[in-house]
Amino acid sequence: PAYNEGSVKMKKVISLEEYMDAENVDVSSFKFHDELNTKFWTDKKLDPIISQHLLKIATEFFENLDLPNVQIKDIRFTGSLANYNWSNYSDVDVHIIVDFADVDENEDIVREMFNAKKALWNKRHDIRIFGFEVELYVENVDDVHHSSGVFSILNNAWVVEPQLEDPKIDWESVKAKAASFMDQIDRLKLLYSQANYEEALATARYLSDRIKTYRRAGL
Question: Does residue 4 sit in helix, strand or coil?
Answer without folding.
Answer: strand
